[in-house]
Amino acid sequence: MKHYSAFAVAREALRYHTGWERAWRSPEPKKRYDVVIVGAGGHGLATAYYLGKNYGIQNVAVIEKGWLGGGNTGRNTTIIRSNYLQDPSAAIYEKARSLYETMSQDLNYNVMFSPRGVMMLAQTQHEVRGYKRTAHANALQGVKTEWIDPARVKQLVPIINLHGPRYPVLGALWQERGGTARHDAVAWGYARACSAMGMDIIQQCEVTGVRSDAGQVVGVDTTRGPIDCGKLGIVVAGHSGQLAEMAGFRLPVEALALQALVSEPIKPCMDVVVMANTVHGYMSQSDKGEMVIGGGTDGFNNFTQRGSFHHIEETVRALNETFPMISRLKMLRQWGGIVDMTGDRSPILSKTPLGGCFINCGWGTGGFKAIPGSGWGMAQLMATGHSPLTEAFSLDRFKEGRFIDESVAAGVAH
Asked: Longest Cα pair distance anywhere in the chain, in angstroms?
């Protein structure tokens, strides 16, 4: 009797149940595509999917230098929420959150969306004022959030310590319809749907140059040969600056490592997501029972995708104050991702100085929650030249001084 490894069994099951061959085998690129998307993460795949679904543009290639979903999409902590302060931010994140609610049905693939609720703790008077202001703004934007007092916080999260040695819990901003989803499944679901439309998902294909003629993009050079295209979308997160330089322009972004870790699995003890911006720590419990933990970005620019001890110490120390019961947990694994940060902590979804070339970057620490909304708006921008979801996030805002300041809402990793 022939024996198979667990990986081989999982691979064959995925092929059998999803018709995965096209994406798995990475077909050779064709001579020309109508659209080339660089980056087979969640944002790039969502852009390709909505180009095909909403606008009938299906001669599309999604090229990836590594493997599908192997960047930040597979390295985040899966939090989904839309309680942002500024109107443009709330609009695109709420669009994304609403699309997550029906994504499993739309893609015919279970992304395990769990609307368990997201709680942002206020542990200083400044945060109390800031979150109450956000709650009022959300009410005007049609985003359902509410301010809750410490007693309600304790009712929702019995394991929490309201009277920490440094910062007490003074209340929280609560979004009941926020939650989590399975990050890998989001990438796989979009990839399968793109593949079914006839799009090519080409892995192990690194872009080495961007070709243009008379100020218009005409194609890209890759490690698997040249590819011609009518339009180019750059959706590569932490490496956006390098791709932009190949295309002949610069971006106001910096790359930083963002780390996360998970504990050994334990019995269910917390069924909501809790974020504590003051002490830079947040936590949720996965379906397998692991406590999923994250904190702030590294304090220096870098491109590492691994963890470091000082970050474990800083983040876990803060969470031990808020959740004393986790002090004896063993850590199971740790990892890092490369995030691209703008000065106003808001993304860039924009045309570029190179005609036919579009950029989607700058999501910083909050990119996963925006994937479907980002793809929806980016597809509309690339197909029609305009999108109300992306208009405020253009590159022009930096030279015009139209900043979308979300430093309070997005200044910590979540």
From this structure: 69
Bridge partners of 217, per DSSP, are 212
Using CA atoms of 121, 123, 127, 131 in order, give the dihedral in degrees to the nearest 10. Answer: 30
Handedness of CA 115, 121, 127, 129 (dihedral sign): positive
Which two structure tokens, joined as six digits, stand for 294? 């994250």
**CA–CA gap between residue 236 and residue 249 (Å, rounded):** 15
Helix ranges (H only) for 296-410 are 309-322, 371-384, 396-400, 407-410
- The answer for residues whose C-beta is within 8 angstroms of residue 317's C-beta and 6 or more apart is none
- Check the CA dihedral 309-311-314-319 and report its sign: negative
Q: To which H or E segment does residue 337 belong?
A: strand 331-342
Q: Where are the beta strands (DSSP E) in 176-312?
A: 179-180, 200-202, 207-213, 216-222, 225-234, 253-263, 273-276, 281-285, 291-301
How far is it, in rounded angstroms, from Cα 195 to Cα 200? 6
- pLDDT reported for residue 4: 41
Q: What is the mean pLDDT of each run of 10 residues along the chain (414 residues)?
A: 44 46 65 95 97 97 95 92 95 97 97 96 94 96 97 97 90 97 96 96 96 96 96 96 95 92 94 91 93 85 82 85 90 90 93 97 93 98 97 94 78 42
Residue 261 burial by Cβ neighbours in a 10 Å radius (0-12, 13-18, 19+): buried
Which has the closest alpha carbon to 178: 120, 134, 119, 118?
A: 118
